[in-house]
Amino acid sequence: MNPHRQGLLKGLLAAVTFGLSAPLISTLTSTGSPLALAGLLYGGSALALLTARAVRGQSTQESSVKRLDLVMLSLLTVIGGIAAPICLVSGLALLSAGSASLLLNLEAVFTMGIALVVGREHLSSKGIAAAVLILAGAVIIGGGTTSGSTLHGAVLIALACLGWGIDNNISQRLSIRDPMQIALLKSVGASVPMLLLAGLTGARFPTPQATAGVLVIGAIGYGLSIWLDLLALRDLGAARESVIFATAPFVGAGFSVLALKETLTTNLIASGVLMVGGVALMLREDHAHWHRHDEVWHEHKHLHSPDNQDPHHAHEHPNGEGVKADRPYWHSHPHLHEPIAHSHPHVSDGHHRHQH
């Protein structure tokens, strides 16, 4: 499977796990304060990622976080790991599960807008058509969900989506590093301050049973989802990832109907058809044209293959260290990208942020 297809699959799995988390969290908002619940969600994420990292061991293929990454990592932790989840939990307490899930479509809008305007990313005609279909589904499904919602709750969900839109674009820049390490540092950096502050201010914590539920939701809906989403951001870029991740609210709304017995509407069915069509179109995207790469020196995980060597990584290795000429292999080390001009299918990943 090529990296584009792999990125799409990882993005869909990230969307499903996160989409299920919002309606589940909404059933527990009355058990504790927003600060305590947000801290526990990222606490569950940290515990899951610590376990996964212990099982996997230290990766020799990935590039570890560097000192120069700490500013961006701090920003995404504060904005996407602390501020956005507090806004989400606060908004979920004021809205129905279905309404809140569907408002999360704003995350895709913010992510795509920032990626295209600020990040110089690009969508092909098929990518734009896919985005229109999925966002149209979001608009349709949102048209019948005003009952039970409040302006205050909607604003809080919108602020959470804005925070995650900024987070996604910062995360895309950091995705050349070890995604599991990034997700773990973000989770620990978000959960520890929130839980300490909740304890010091006397915030209300849920019962032990509810706490266990919140930790499990955090482990899957945040820990697993963040890790998969970072992998998708690496393979697809933030703009394309946002199109795929826009299916998360539909997953949440569908779960609200099936499991929480909320009303099934024609809007939900219509939006589902549009979103499935958008994802199918994105799977068929093939963006290729002549473009130039400038010289760059950086470090990240990359593939060497004796059969079909990636022209971006056809570099020499000192003393042949780590080279396995008889089979494809992945590794990470500082390397130079020589200037090159060529044409091939690509997305707006870390090597392809060029003008069109």
Structure explained in plain terms:
By secondary structure, the protein is mainly α. It folds into two domains: 3-289, no CATH class; 295-338, no CATH class. 62% of the residues lie in helices and 8% in strands. It is built from twelve helices and four strands. The strands form two sheets. Strands 1-4 form a two-stranded antiparallel ribbon. A two-stranded antiparallel sheet has the order 2-3. Helix 1 (3-26) packs antiparallel against helix 4, helix 2 (34-56) runs antiparallel to helix 8 (179-200) and helix 2 crosses helix 9 (208-236). It is globular.
Number of strand elements: 4
Ends distance: 27 Å
As an assembly, this protein is: single chain
What's the overall average pLDDT, rounded?
78
What's the number of domains? Answer: 2
Any idea what the shape is?
Answer: globular
Determine the number of helices (DSSP H or I, runs of at least 4 residues): 12
* Content-based structural category: mainly alpha
Major pleated sheet: 2 strands, antiparallel
Radius of gyration: 21 Å
Strand content: 5-15%
Helix content: 55-70%
Query: Which ranges are low-confidence, i.e. pLDDT below 50, for 5 or more consecutive residues?
Result: 144-148
Order of helices and strands: HHHHHHHHHHHHEEEE
Strand order of the largest sheet: 1-4
